[in-house]
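BUG: 3D viewer hangs when loading the predicted structure for this chain

Environment: internal workstation, default settings.
Expected: structure renders.
Actual: progress bar stalls at 90%.

Input used:
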Amino acid sequence: MLSKNKLYWIFQIGGWSTYAAIVGIFNVLANGSTFTLELVFSLLAILLIVIIVSHTYRKIINKLNWMNLNVLQLIPRLLLGTLLSGIAVYILKSLIIERLIVQNAYEFTFKDAFPSIVSSALLFLIWSLLYFLFHYVSNYKKEEIKNLKWQAAKNEIELNKLKSQLNPHFIFNSMNSIRALVDESPVNAKNAITQLSNVLRNSLLMGKKKLIPLGDEMKLVNDYLGLEKTRFEERLTIIREINKTSESFLVPPLMIQTLVENGIKHGTSKLPKGGILKIVSEVKSDTLTVVIYNCGVYDENLKTETGFGIVNTKQRLQLIYGDKAQFSIKNIDGMVETQLTIPNETIL
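Structure tokens produced before the viewer hung:
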């Protein structure tokens, strides 16, 4: 399958070559002459000029991000862009063809320049419409293929995710902790029940979405950590360093919660004295980085029956972002560091 860039150059060269050929045929028929060497050089010069000007125009469109503008914002920019492109073509044709190839003593007159500039501008207006059409059609197909891949893999990933998120051990442990609180601290028991309800409800609701704000994800994480704090008490120390600017950043739902649960399940819960769980988030260069630290040792060769968290995270990142997202987990300074880097992209 040809890439978008290769298709662009095929259409670019093929389209403008057809235009140059039509101009050449029209000149021959209108003047009743044959293809002379001078005409051939002139046509090659025209082909080179329109390709250079249109490609420069395309770079400006992409640089100024015109593809994301609405119609009312785009129309005046297109009109100005096509007019400037028409002027550029006229100037280059005058310098290269008239003076260098034909070697006429060319003098600028508005009467001669105006129709030539208008015709070139109209030609570039047509080019602009075709280019935007090509862009939207190719992007639509790309998104359609991505959505089909998402739907094809969604059921399998969803099953594994639910095994990781709503496993019976977590619910059982939470209920035991709540039962222990009922007599000694009814208020804390009520809070724990509310937190468990939030975790269960949000897990089901968020699982239906592709992306949610990090702030919403952290509400679920905080409810989950509240339950685990009730369970482990002083054995679990929680540190949060969530950058405010990162809270509106879109992330895959339940992904941070999965990694936090993974850190407690395979870290703190395995240590007699417990340990620390720290969550840090920051945004740099329009990219979100979330780092989770937990006490313990990561053994990549150890396979567990409930070890779906890391596998699911890698699957979902690849499915949604391709190679643009990064995930790593490693031992560092006596702790396990899990790092997640996500680009700021609109997936839906």
